[in-house]
UniProtKB/TrEMBL annotation:
Residues 11-93 form the DUF559 domain. InterPro entries: DUF559, Restrct_endonuc-II-like. This is DUF559 domain-containing protein. It comes from marine sediment metagenome.
Length: 102
């Protein structure tokens, strides 16, 4: 039996499904639930270096989670990744291309 590392999420949320559908509709190739740098699993990875997260409004508004997200963002940016986090409420209202690819 293969164990899943603790940083790997194995299920998709409703907002992740919506974001994945949006990426597909725009013919954007991506990898889902991709472990990056052994510190995080990004919801969607778009080559060469885009880490795209679909963050739930409730959990990602908690101070400890916000601080963790900030540390992850900073670490990834130092390593050359572009990090974009979209809140569930933003995704449900409609994703703007510019909010991801500016």
């Amino acid at each position: 039996m293969v164990e899943t590392p603790p940083f790997v999420q194995t299920r998709n949320t409703d907002i992740e499904r919506l974001l994945g559908q949006w990426l597909n509709q725009h013919n954007i190739k991506f990898e889902e639930q991709k472990p990056v740098e052994k510190i995080t699993t990004v919801d969607f990875f778009v080559k060469p270096n885009l880490c795209l997260y679909a963050d739930g409004d409730y959990w990602h508004s908690k101070e400890d989670v916000r601080q963790r997200d900030k540390r992850i963002n900073e670490t990834l940016q130092i390593k050359g990744y572009k990090v974009v986090r979209l809140l569930g409420s933003e995704i449900k209202k409609g994703i703007r291309y510019e909010s991801i690819f500016n």
